[in-house]
Design brief:
Length: 185
């Protein structure tokens, strides 16, 4: 019997969640399976992968063929890396201690990359939120200015009255000065 490691689709429409399973290759996609190995949720960022590492490694070593997507998930979690290293032990290329050391170093590097990605995403989200708040404040300020301008009395009418008063005052002074000169003469 040929076995495959593949995904079974679950979840609602437009929001899939996949079970990672080992199944007979002749079984339907969402049909009977031999063993459930984990879950894959692509809706989160970064995607959530919950995998039983030991059982997945067992099935890969016994010859179960992963589909393309399952292969990518197993590679991401390090199952294929561990299989590669254990095959090297069988061939005498290195010892089990070296395998553990190499695998732990690889996992630390992988975790650091994942952490930096999540930090970058959270920082980008915070920056985007700050920009949105700043833009909203500018819009609110412009609206407040427009409302204040609409509710304020017309400044043009006051300026005209002030100009008229300023023009009348010099005329009366000039008229008074001219009348005083006429009286003297």
């Amino acid at each position: 019997m040929a076995t495959k490691i593949r995904l079974q689709r679950h979840g609602r429409k437009g929001r899939p969640i996949f079970h990672i399973v080992t199944a007979d290759e002749r079984a339907k996609r969402d049909g009977r399976y031999i063993e459930k190995l984990g879950l894959y949720n692509p809706n989160t960022n970064p995607a959530t992968i919950d995998l039983n590492f030991e059982r997945a490694l067992y099935w890969v070593q016994t010859g179960a063929q992963p589909t393309d997507t399952a292969r990518a998930l197993l590679s991401y979690k390090g199952v294929l890396m561990m299989k590669h290293l254990l095959d090297g032990v069988k061939k005498g290329a290195h010892t089990e201690e070296q395998v553990e050391e190499k695998f732990n170093k690889w996992m630390e590097d992988k975790e650091n990359r994942i952490n930096s990605k999540t930090e970058g995403l959270s920082k980008a989200k915070a920056d985007e939120k700050a920009k949105k708040i700043e833009a909203e404040l500018e819009v609110s300020k412009k609206r407040a200015e427009a409302i204040a301008a609409a509710n304020a009395p017309e400044p043009v009418a006051e300026e005209v009255v002030a100009e008229d008063a300023a023009e009348e005052a010099p005329e009366t002074i000039d008229d008074a000065a001219a009348a005083a000169k006429n009286e003297e003469a």
